[in-house]
Amino acid sequence: MRTVNVIRYVLPFREGGSVPALVEADDLGLYVVKLRGAAQGTKPLIAELVAGELARLAGLRVPEIVLAELDGALAASEPHREICEQLEASAGLNLALDYLPGSITFDPVVAPRPDPVTASRTVLLDAFVANVDRTPRNPNLLVWHTQLWLIDHGASLYFHHGWSPADPLDGVSDPFAEVRQHILLPWAKALDAAAAHLAAVFTDEALARIVEDIPAGWLGPEHGFSDEASHRAAYLGWLHARRANLPLLLEEATRALRV
Hints:
- The protein is α+β, with helices and mostly antiparallel strands.
- The protein has two domains: 3-98; 104-258.
- Helix content is 34%, strand content 17%.
- The strands form two sheets. Strands 1-2-3-5-4 form a five-stranded mixed beta barrel. A three-stranded antiparallel β-sheet has the order 6-7-8, with no helix packed on it.
- A hairpin with a 2-residue loop joins β7 and β8.
- The longest helix is centred in the last third of the chain and has 17 residues, at 228-244.
- It comes from Pendulispora brunnea.
């Protein structure tokens, strides 16, 4: 995973729990950065990284995810006091997604409609990571150059907000009944094939690579684990166990589709 240095703060997007903002980096690219200094800390950033890279592994379109080094001095360019304070608190390594200029929010009433493969893989991916934010109210889908792109996975992996080493598999057997509200469920006509695909591509090696990309500074004893290694191992163990529950997720999604 690449690391870029933020050189210019452009403007805030005044929505989202991780206080996203548009920034320019030293590679001259524009990125939507998620700030570690926001109220929920690094948890949404970890969820964004893990769920976003799982989506990419599943063959879905996700803007490039990078690590973004931010100098707290950039806060001087922001007149809004609350955002200024969060920029100062976010000095160091944050997470950012490549900005898709000209993209628009997906509207199920307007073409292009998602194909069954994309819809089915997205539905099961979101069930896998327990993403409650892909609904008609908050689709977190963009249309860019006629293609569907997945964004904003910070609400995924809900279990880790109250996680502890005493229960490292919390939520792993949740069938994710919220799939009934998924915005792409009506087009998810290839769920069986999607489940088989996820089971095939979510290999031990692939899951380990994604977990290894979590920065060390986002893990550790302050989250209840004894050290970074045990915290990282807990994420990997949860993903392995969740993969074993793919049949449960498929059953729930299939039931929801038939209702």
